[in-house]
Amino acid sequence: MKAFCFDVFGTVVDWRSGIAREAAGFFSRYGLAGIDPYEFAAAWRTLYQPAMEACRSGKRPFTRLDILHRENLVVALGNYGVDVAQLDTNALDQLNTAWHRLDPWPDVVSGLTRLKQHYIIAPASNGNIALMVNMAKRAHVPWDAILGAEVTQAYKPSPPAYTRMVEILGLPSKDVCMVAAHNSDLHAARECGLSTAFVARPKEHGPQQASDLEPTEDWDIVARDFDHLADLVLPKN
Amino acid sequence: MKAFCFDVFGTVVDWRSGIAREAAGFFSRYGLAGIDPYEFAAAWRTLYQPAMEACRSGKRPFTRLDILHRENLVVALGNYGVDVAQLDTNALDQLNTAWHRLDPWPDVVSGLTRLKQHYIIAPASNGNIALMVNMAKRAHVPWDAILGAEVTQAYKPSPPAYTRMVEILGLPSKDVCMVAAHNSDLHAARECGLSTAFVARPKEHGPQQASDLEPTEDWDIVARDFDHLADLVLPKN
After folding, report:
1. Which CATH superfamily is domain A16-101 in?
2. What are the start-end ranges of the H helices in chain B?
3. Nearest to B5 by CA among B112, B117, B159
4. How far apart are CA A169 and CA A148, in angstroms?
5. What does the pLDDT profile of chain A (237 residues) look like in tens digits?
6. From-to residues of CATH 3.40.50.1000 in chain B
7. What stretch(es) of chain B map to CATH 1.10.150.240?
8. Which ranges in chain A are annotated with CATH 1.10.150.240?
9. Which of the residues B64, B144, B164, B173 would you substitute to probe the A interface, choosing the one with the greatest number of A C-beta atoms within 10 Å?
10. Domain of life, per the record (chains A, B) (predicted)?
């Protein structure tokens, strides 16, 4: 193994709490305090896969996630009966970049800092480059490079999202390990020849989470968190 | 200013000494000790612009620099009368990645480490992503992201090499400062609306260097080295 590439939303950062935090502030400023911010976070996120699917299927050219998120924000607010035309455009833009200000899970920075001593570490996220850079700088996530959809011009789980990343890294595919809290992401990565590591994030979807609590295939690595991942793959002293 | 994007070959790293060092080892192993390694480094580098020009002009699709370097290596050795077919392919591949193992100028890591506290820092190089990542890990260069030709799919000084980078960063073009030891790079960046910083590297081409010893336009910033650049743009305590 030479490189670890990470899913980000859910695996590295807690998007649900972060979006709910910023949405709550927005709703209270705009007299929308009746909307539950956690429900809203999930509702906004629900529009994510269909928006990317339009790009994956070729209905629409590749479009970076900040733009898809902004379109989805308008739809999500509209679904709650909010008259978006009455809202300040700058405030909507600001809420849209809440995705740039998500907090990592508590083990992330320490685990990645250790992994970085021996391996290339990079996000392999559907998030765009600016989103990943701003998130990493705010939270001190020490990536070696920002890879992912905007670099490969392909949204996971399309195969080019994985195969182009491997080619860009100039490594045999087995030397690149996809790390994710989502079995489906690892399944797609394995189909492309990458190694796989599962790290469960049982609170990604809140207290009632029912999916991805356990590995569903025999992934190459199963770790409790990023510190445990580092324990498993770093050379012993 | 929000982001500083750096030319790399010449501005961040001393390619001439690094290539000469690895070429000298290669030549001595293969009985080619008659070739001057510094001359060879310059000869190999001379093929760089024409190879990129084939991509810039559209004669050839965008092709990452590792591949262009490898083709140019065969040509450069052939120009010295070396029978490349007699050489070990793995050894040629290894020499080709000498570009991944170049040393930064002495002020680079300290200056960038300081700049990173307040700004996004990224290479805006014609080098490909793996080349930049491997170079940065070996030399502890603390980039926030790897930008450049493989991300924009355009070789400098083509305008898309600058304009797509600005768009990817999601910033107004004036908030992105191109840093280079080459006036021509800054000229092209300024034409695209970026801010500009000149850092002279009077030994890039060896002791006889005659070009780029001074700024040839009124660049926004002129710094002696990266530490000085940090002094000029960081907030004073």
Report:
1. Putative phosphatase; domain 2 (1.10.150.240)
2. 15-29, 37-46, 48-56, 65-79, 89-96, 108-116, 129-139, 149-152, 159-169, 183-191, 226-233
3. B112
4. 12
5. 999 999 999 999 999 999 999 999 999 999 998 999 999 999 999 999 999 999 999 999 999 999 999 999 999 999 999 999 999 999 999 999 999 999 999 999 999 999 999 999 999 999 999 999 999 999 999 999 999 999 999 999 999 999 999 999 999 999 999 999 999 999 999 999 999 999 999 999 999 999 999 999 999 999 999 999 999 999 987
6. 3-14+104-233
7. 15-101
8. 16-101
9. B144
10. Bacteria
Tokens 């960046």 correspond to: B189
Given this model, what pLDDT does residue A83 score?
A: 94
Residue A171 has what pLDDT? 98
Q: How far is A107 from chain B (nearest CA, A)?
A: 20
Flag if A120 and B133 touch (Cβ within 8 Å): yes
pLDDT confidence of residue A86:
93
**Considering only alpha carbons, which residue of chain B is nearest residue A128?**
B168
Both tokens of B179, joined, read 């840093």
Task: List the single residue in A133, A147, A150 with the smallest CB-CB distance to B144.
Answer: A133
Instruction: Please give the CATH number for the structural domain made up of B3-14+104-233.
Output: 3.40.50.1000
User: Splitting chain B (237 residues) into consecutive groups of 10 residues, what average pLDDT does each group show?
Assistant: 98 98 97 95 97 97 98 98 95 98 98 98 98 98 98 98 98 98 98 98 96 98 98 91
| Statement: A3-14+102-233 belongs to CATH 3.40.190.170 | no
B157: preceding bond cis by omega (within 30 degrees): yes
Sheet of B195-199: strands edge to edge?
Answer: B147-148, B120-125, B3-6, B176-180, B195-199, B221-223
Q: Any CB–CB contact under 8 A between A146 and chain B?
A: yes
Q: Residue B48 — left, alpha, or beta (φ > 0 → left; ψ -120 to 50 → alpha)?
A: alpha
pLDDT at position A33 is: 87
Residues of chain A with CATH 3.40.50.1000: 3-14+102-233
Q: Which chain A residues touch B151 with a CB distance below 8 Å?
A: 129, 150-151
Contact B169 A130 (CB under 8 A): yes
What's the pLDDT score for residue B68? 98
B15-101 topology per CATH: DNA polymerase; domain 1 (1.10.150)
Whether B65 contacts chain A with CB within 8 A? no
Chain B's closest residue to A167, CA to CA, is B130
Tell me which chain B residues have a C-beta less than 8 angstroms from the C-beta of A168: 128-130, 150
